[in-house]
């Protein structure tokens, strides 16, 4: 591990890569504050930029920086104007906004920043310990187990994501998988389902799809309902005076941060759970175990109520990198987009990543420490200035959001047809949101589709049929688990509802 | 019938068309040598089509419990008349226009028109601010993407750059 760590240090501590972390965190914070652009949309916009960089480590470091920055930015807007830009920071607004209303916005931001920093750092340490262990187990897996593992991942995502309706989420997954079969795959040298349209030869662009599924519907909702974009009211909460916290407060939040970082990390590792559930659960757990008089404080501006969701969601963000880096299976919409970016950069994440390209793996981990440090020491003093972005009037904000979704889809492909697809899919996605169909499963299905089919085909060829299902006990066990995940309705009721105003879907 | 079931019906039709292609038309083009392989290009789509049809049917027929009460805070179809549907449709049309005009007009002009037009649609009437913001933004983004990132974006209309 030490050797890897040194490689990572050497890679991460080059001038370019430090700039990537700093730049990524700043861009992420900046855009993450805006309503309507969650981490998924921001990362999707940044992917063409990352691909242009060319170096996979630098690109991944940039995107990871953008990711933490966006989550941090989301908590800032939750605290200052009660408008979480991201679902995973909704819980932060429960106590952050009341505290800001009392004129203590600075204190709320400091607590959030410290909790995020600790959550992210503890998460990174756990990632460093668990990822190599998991990867060494994963090396024993054959294509049939990979196939089964992806099925487990997809069913877990369908079971946890969505609005408690597993059927709808599964249908979305199937739709995503079907869309992935359009075009000329790597497996068979024949175009499929292109209906003779040349532009479909290479399939649908995943950035286009990501934009259409997340950024565009959110922007359309902002247009439809002006109340959603309550920016620029510049109320009392927007004033940041004093960033200090007292010694007593620091002592009170320390155990909260410790517990929630660990809990958040393990929730983040589970596919489909992610930062949103981690933050709500963290908040609920801390409220339940707090003393009587502290319980009274929750919801009225408790520092514990800010520390719990903030450390949990950051640790969960880090935790979601475990399945991505070790198995190559994303557990959330955001990591699915990162997987898409990695594939575009010719890196195949999975257990061999740590052996074949250790510098990428370790540089990402080191950049996580750096990213958290950057957010703490750079962003905190800059927050009063960055928060000015919240005063951008809606009449300018919305055309820019729409324009950035268009650019994101266009830059990667340089193809105007892609823009028409973007608008078409965006309209479909908006209708789906109206009807309570979750969209993250569709995107994850779309990104995992080729990998799933690939492993399925290899297993079929190896065993000359579907015999691998019962000839390999591990595969059978995983597939049974997948069925249980979908069937067991107990999971449904546990899902915390993360639906509030101005919240981007997913985390 | 609620919107989610209408959508399920549409998805069902898509799945049927997809399944028809997978089961009946795709294999015709398969070279004979490939037919000896245990896996065909149509194998995986066949599985997906069956799953998709079954799932969309289950939603269409309402086998799954109907959704819980929609959250008042979230966007809600029954309040559609309160929403600015007109603005949203015009903005989407503007995006389509942008897609179609990007090549002929060039990036700078198309982007300028889109940003200025977008704020106009949303009710902005301070024309000077609008024009200045749109012009600066179009120029800056072009500079960042084309010059800094090195991704080619044709800046001027076709008749200037000569195709």
Description of the structure:
The complex is a heterodimer of chains A (507) and B (163). With 507 residues, chain A is mainly α. Chain A has one domain (2-494). Helix content of chain A is 73%, strand content 1%. Chain A has helices spanning 2-12, 15-32, 39-53, 56-81, 90-101, 105-138, 143-160, 166-180, 206-224, 247-269, 274-289, 292-297, 303-319, 321-327, 333-344, 353-356, 358-386, 394-413, 416-434, 440-463, 468-471, 473-487, 490-494; strands spanning 183-184, 191-192. Chain A has a two-stranded antiparallel sheet with strand order 1-2. Chain A is globular. With 163 residues, chain B is mainly alpha-helical. Chain B contains 6 helices and no strands. Chain B has helices spanning 3-25, 43-60, 85-105, 107-121, 127-148, 158-161. In chain B, helix 1 packs antiparallel against helix 2, helix 3 (85-105) packs antiparallel against helix 4 (107-121) and helix 4 (107-121) runs antiparallel to helix 5 (127-148). The longest helix of chain B is centred in the N-terminal third of the chain and has 23 residues, at 3-25. Classes of the chains: A mainly alpha (507), B mainly alpha (163). Chains A and B meet through helix 3, helix 8, helix 9, helix 18 and helix 19 of A and helix 1, helix 2, helix 3, helix 4 and helix 5 of B.
């Amino acid at each position: 591990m030490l050797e890897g760590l040194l490689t990572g240090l050497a890679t991460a501590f080059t001038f370019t890569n430090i700039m990537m972390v700093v730049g990524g965190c700043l861009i992420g914070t900046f855009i993450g504050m805006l309503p309507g652009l969650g981490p998924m949309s921001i990362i999707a916009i940044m992917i063409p930029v990352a691909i242009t960089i060319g170096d996979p480590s630098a690109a991944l470091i940039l995107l990871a920086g953008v990711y933490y920055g966006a989550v941090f930015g989301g908590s800032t807007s939750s605290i200052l104007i009660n408008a979480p830009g991201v679902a995973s920071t909704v819980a932060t607004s429960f106590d952050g906004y009341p505290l800001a209303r009392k004129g203590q916005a600075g204190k709320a931001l400091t607590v959030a920043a410290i909790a995020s920093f600790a959550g992210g750092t503890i998460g990174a340490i756990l990632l460093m310990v668990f990822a190599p262990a998991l990867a060494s187990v994963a090396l024993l897996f054959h294509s049939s187990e990979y196939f089964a593992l992806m099925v487990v991942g997809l069913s877990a995502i369908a079971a946890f994501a969505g609005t408690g309706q597993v059927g709808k989420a599964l249908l979305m997954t199937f739709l995503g998988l079907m869309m992935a079969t359009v075009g000329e795959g790597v497996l068979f040298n024949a175009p499929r389902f292109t209906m003779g349209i040349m532009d479909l030869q290479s399939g649908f662009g995943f950035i286009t799809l990501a934009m259409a599924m997340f950024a565009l519907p959110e922007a359309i909702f902002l247009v439809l309902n002006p109340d959603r974009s309550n920016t620029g009211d510049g109320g009392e909460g927007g004033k940041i005076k004093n960033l200090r916290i007292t010694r007593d407060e620091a002592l009170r939040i320390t155990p909260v941060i410790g517990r929630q970082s660990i809990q958040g990390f393990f929730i983040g590792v589970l596919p489909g759970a992610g930062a949103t559930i981690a933050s709500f659960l963290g908040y609920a757990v801390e409220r339940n175990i707090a003393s009587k008089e502290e319980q009274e404080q929750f919801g009225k501006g408790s520092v514990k109520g800010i520390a719990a969701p903030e450390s949990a969601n950051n640790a969960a963000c880090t935790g979601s990198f475990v399945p991505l880096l070790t198995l190559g299976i994303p557990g959330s919409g955001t990591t699915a987009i990162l997987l898409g970016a990695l594939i575009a950069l010719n890196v195949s994440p999975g257990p061999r990543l740590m052996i074949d390209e250790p510098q990428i793996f370790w540089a990402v981990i080191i950049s996580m420490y750096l990213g958290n440090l950057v957010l703490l020491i750079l962003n905190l003093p800059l927050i009063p200035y960055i928060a000015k972005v919240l005063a951008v009037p809606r009449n300018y904000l919305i055309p820019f959001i729409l324009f950035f979704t268009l650019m994101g889809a266009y830059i990667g492909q340089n193809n105007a047809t892609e823009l028409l697809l973007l608008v078409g899919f965006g309209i479909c996605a908006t209708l789906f949101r109206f009807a309570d169909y979750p969209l993250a499963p569709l995107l994850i299905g779309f990104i995992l589709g080729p990998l799933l089919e690939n492993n399925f085909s290899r297993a079929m060829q190896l065993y000359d049929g579907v015999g691998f299902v019962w000839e390999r006990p591990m595969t059978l066990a995983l597939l049974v688990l997948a069925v249980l995940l979908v069937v067991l309705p107990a999971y449904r009721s546990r899902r915390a509802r993360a639906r509030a105003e101005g919240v981007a879907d997913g985390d | 019938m609620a919107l989610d079931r209408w959508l399920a019906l549409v998805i069902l039709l898509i799945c049927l068309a997809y399944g028809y292609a997978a089961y009946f038309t795709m294999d015709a083009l398969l070279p004979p040598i490939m037919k000896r392989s245990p896996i065909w290009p149509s194998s995986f789509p066949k599985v997906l089509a069956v799953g998709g049809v079954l799932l969309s049917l289950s939603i269409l027929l309402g086998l799954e419990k109907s959704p819980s009460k929609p959250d008042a805070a979230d966007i809600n179809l029954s309040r559609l008349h309160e929403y600015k549907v007109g603005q949203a449709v015009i903005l989407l049309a503007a995006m389509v226009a942008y897609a179609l005009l990007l090549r002929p007009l060039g990036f700078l002009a198309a982007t300028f028109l889109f940003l200025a037009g977008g704020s106009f649609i949303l009710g902005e009437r301070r024309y000077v601010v609008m024009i200045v913001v749109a012009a600066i933004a179009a120029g800056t983004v072009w500079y960042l993407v084309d010059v800094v990132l090195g991704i080619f974006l044709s800046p001027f209309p076709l008749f200037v750059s000569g195709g």
